[in-house]
Write a structure and sequence with these properties.
With 475 residues, this protein is mainly beta. The chain has one domain: Beta Barrel (Porin), CATH 2.40.160. The chain is 9% helix and 50% strand. The chain has five helices and 27 strands. The strands form four sheets. The protein has an 18-stranded antiparallel beta barrel. A hairpin with a 3-residue loop joins strand 21 and strand 22. The longest helix is centred in the first third of the chain and has 22 residues. The chain is globular and about 70 Å long. About 13% of the residues have low confidence.
């Protein structure tokens, strides 16, 4: 088949996908009134192609027995069904989650050599029918969700790979936290607790990758971006904003950018393998996937703070490196962000935010130890180069994480993740046990514990300590 014919077939196939792209893209949200929106989740989110290293063992089970798309014209339905049960342990104790999650998809290759993938996820949380702990607004947002996952077409032309559709673009993969992974949007309605393959929301994008020797170049265009899902006020992990004595607080609808070319994202990335080092550099210009809460102060008829989530136009420049040293793997990531604003704790500030340019970086060691044990250590820092003394973070915020994982038996493993700040008592502890009790079946039991000040990264969720269990069947 000639390159011209292959390009023609690929473009024709992409045109068939275009209406789906526009229909599934999140519409602009328009603020009206002083309470949060009551509309259901309108951003149809995310399937993984293997995420961070600490998720690889879980992704492998979900993909067990699947046939790669380039080895046949089709591969049957693949995915998993999972039930998640969680109970908050702080007084008063309550059931916080009774979630059934089903993820399914198929992939294959046409006779013309065009590879394809279609996948989706359905979530239903029975806690909103079994209990009355949450508001109607939270119930409408989280009770039922249908999420379109990775759905795209692929083709190759000489040294080029082309992909168009809803896809994951993973540029960084540190353990437990996000640094250079700047393209992904995320479902933050459970904070950063779900596995990254659940947490990430894919983007509607066109991506071209160029390969030559040990170099890979990547061009990315995201015409209709996806944005973080942060939930509604009153939800368990809603990012509630600062309060002040004598003022009540309310939230307007989130303002998402209009669907137009000027609101699109674009980026480029280069990756090199040299002398055993895996190096990359990137630039990404985007509407920030994470919201910034702008503030209005009202004094009549009564003192009130009105917050409205908006998305700043930001630029991010960064890079990654990795190298293996025997049983140890060294990883590092850094990203410099301009254009993003942060909350300022001055009531006389006009909109409650100030632009703050940040350099975020992390250095990690992943060590394979005897007795099927893995140890991951990370040090990370966030540096604000134009620091305003009235923003919540200090000029330098330093922290660390520790992940210890051990196979107790061929089917049973235990792990614990600890993430903490050096600047204050602000930490998260996540012990967990996984039991692969039958082929394609996994049972997990764990806990999520938070400690810190009310405005701390983890401390703001100090009342959300919970224990949980998950039962998964992969097919």
């Amino acid at each position: 088949m000639t390159h011209r014919k292959r390009i023609s077939d690929f473009l024709a196939t992409c045109l068939l996908l275009l209406p789906l792209t526009l229909l599934a893209a999140p519409p602009e949200k328009v603020g009206s009134g002083e309470t949060a929106a009551t509309d259901t989740s309108d951003d149809i989110d995310a399937l993984l192609r293997a995420a961070a290293a600490d998720d690889a063992k879980n992704a492998a089970m979900a993909q067990a027995g699947s046939t790669p798309a380039d080895k046949g014209s089709g591969s049957g339905l693949r995915g998993f069904a999972q039930f998640e049960l969680a109970r908050a342990v702080e007084s008063p104790s309550y059931w916080s989650k009774m979630l059934t999650r089903v993820e399914f998809g198929a992939q294959g290759k046409s006779s013309g050599g065009i590879k394809w993938k279609v996948s989706a996820r359905v979530d239903y949380d029975a806690v909103f029918d079994a209990t009355h702990f949450y508001s109607d607004e939270v119930r409408r947002d989280q009770r039922f969700n249908f999420n379109l996952r990775e759905t795209y077409f692929d083709t190759s032309l000489d040294n080029w790979d082309l992909r168009i559709g809803r896809q994951h673009v993973v540029w960084g993969e540190m353990v437990g936290l996000f640094f250079a992974d700047v393209v992904s949007a995320r479902d933050m309605r459970e904070f950063i607790l779900p596995e990254f393959n659940i947490l990430r929301i894919p983007q509607w994008a066109a991506r071209a990758e160029y390969f030559k020797g040990d170099f890979k170049g990547e061009l990315l265009w995201v015409p209709v971006p996806s944005y973080d899902e942060t939930g509604k006020p009153g939800a368990e992990f809603f990012p509630a904003q600062p309060t002040f004595p004598g003022y009540t607080v309310s939230y307007r609808n989130e303002q998402r950018p209009a669907r137009q070319l000027s609101s699109g994202n674009y980026g480029l990335r280069g990756t090199w393998l040299t002398a055993g080092w895996d190096l990359s550099a990137f630039f990404y210009r985007s509407m920030d996937a994470a919201p910034t809460f702008y503030r209005q102060v009202v004094t009549v008829p009564q003192p009130q703070l009105i917050y409205e989530a908006r998305h700043d136009r930001i630029s991010q420049t960064g890079g990654t490196l990795a190298k293996g040293f025997g049983a140890t793997v060294l990883k590092a990531e850094a990203v410099y962000t301009t254009g993003r604003s942060q909350t300022v704790l001055r009531l006389d500030d006009a909109d409650g935010v100030v632009p703050q340019n940040t350099l975020d970086w992390a250095l990690g060691l992943d060590v394979t130890l005897p007795a099927d044990t893995r140890l991951n250590l990370q040090y990370f820092q966030s540096l604000i180069t134009n620091h305003d003394r009235d923003v919540i973070p200090q000029k330098r915020e330093n922290g660390y994480s520790l992940l210890l994982n051990r196979k107790l038996t061929p089917r049973l493993e235990a792990e614990v993740l600890w993430v903490a700040s050096f600047e204050r008592t602000d930490w998260m502890l996540r012990p967990k046990i996984n039991w692969d009790f039958e082929r394609n079946w996994r049972l997990a039991v764990g806990a999520d514990v938070f400690k810190g000040p009310p405005l701390g990264f983890f401390g703001r969720y100090a009342a959300q300590d919970r224990v949980y269990t998950e039962l998964r069947y992969s097919y």
